[in-house]
Amino acid sequence: xxxxxxxxxxxxxxWAWSDLPFGHVASEAGAAPIAIHGLALCQYAGATGVYRFxxxxxxxxxxxxxxxxxxxxxQQLPAQYRAVAATWHRAGCSN
Length: 95
What we know:
Elements: E1 6-7, E2 10-17, E3 23-25, E4 34-36, E5 38-43, E6 50-55, E7 61-67, H1 70-75, E8 89-90
Antiparallel strand pairs: 1-2, 2-5, 2-8, 3-4, 5-6, 6-7
């Protein structure tokens, strides 16, 4: 599934998608864990850091973390998101 051009107001730089979840994030109030199908590297206007957004099946950000660069964000993917290998795509590219 192709991502939107912006997530949480930040411009998309790169993305990865998997029909099988990369992993899961604990939800609030004891509800079922949320499956993470999309990973997005984004940058807010005027910011120097790059955010890695962990997204649900509708590209809604569930969790985020800021990094110094896109390479750092890709390299430091948490173990909880390694159930499926991430294949990264540049924004505007589907392959």
